[in-house]
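TASK: fixed-backbone design
INPUT:
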């Protein structure tokens, strides 16, 4: 039976809060491997990330082989956790906004989110028109939604008892060359993943400084 939004509102916030508060960027991982089943469960949750027009531009290169992770480590300035973690993920953003537009808007039409085929075709045309935007615009476009997917990945992993570390410290050209990433994809982030080493148990690590709610919010406008 379908779960209503209000039922979800009542049952899920505490679990979510625990996941959010527990997550830490972890560098030290145990020797325990992550099963393919667990990885699939994590990525199954990642699919539910929201994206502009639901265009879902993300794809993930999931590396578990030691040599592959060593190669990725070289692209990441030698950061040790890339090989210490049993899993390293290259988070890619598709810079072609229309890559999945047909399927997305067929779905909207089927489910009544769009009134008719003409509207569906108009939307596909609009998104296909985005292919003519600058490389810079489409890189920004894909980075927005793909970064959200990276965050879902980290929270989903945490909800399965895993720890992660996001990384922007890498040479994107080297990542492209080493892992044959097609030109149309932007390497947006790397994420290491595994079970935290006992002495790096992220529950016990003191939470790093966070700016206060008052400092980060501007209720009613920036000058308020
Ligand atoms: C976009 C982004 C890039 C980051 N790049 C790196 C990195 O290259 N190497 C690294 O060890 N940590 C990296 N971090 C992890 C941050 O240092 C970490 O999130 C921050 O210190 C807060 O700590 P916490 O995640 O444990 O709360 C990155 C985090 C983000 C969000």
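OUTPUT:
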């Amino acid at each position: 039976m379908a779960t209503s939004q209000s039922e979800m509102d009542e049952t899920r916030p505490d679990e979510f809060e625990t996941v959010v508060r527990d997550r830490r960027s972890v560098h030290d991982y145990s020797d325990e491997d992550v099963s393919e089943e667990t990885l699939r469960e994590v990525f199954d949750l990642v699919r539910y990330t929201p994206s502009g027009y639901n265009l879902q531009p993300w794809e993930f290169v999931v590396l578990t082989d030691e040599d592959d992770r060593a190669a990725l480590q070289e692209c990441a300035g030698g950061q040790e956790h890339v090989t210490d973690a049993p899993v390293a993920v290259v988070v890619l953003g598709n810079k072609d906004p229309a890559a999945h537009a047909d399927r997305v808007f067929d779905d909207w039409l089927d489910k009544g989110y769009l009134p008719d085929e003409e509207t569906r075709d108009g939307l596909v045309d609009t998104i296909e028109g985005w292919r003519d935007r600058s490389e810079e615009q489409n890189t920004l476009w894909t980075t927005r939604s793909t970064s959200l997917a990276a965050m879902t990945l980290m929270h989903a992993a945490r909800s399965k008892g895993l720890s992660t570390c996001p990384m922007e410290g890498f040479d994107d050209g080297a990542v492209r060359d080493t892992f044959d990433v097609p030109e149309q994809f932007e390497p947006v982030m790397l994420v290491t993943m595994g079970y935290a080493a006992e002495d790096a148990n992220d529950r016990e690590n003191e939470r790093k400084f966070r700016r206060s709610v008052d400092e980060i919010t501007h209720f009613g406008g920036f000058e308020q």
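COMMENT: The chain has ten helices and four strands.
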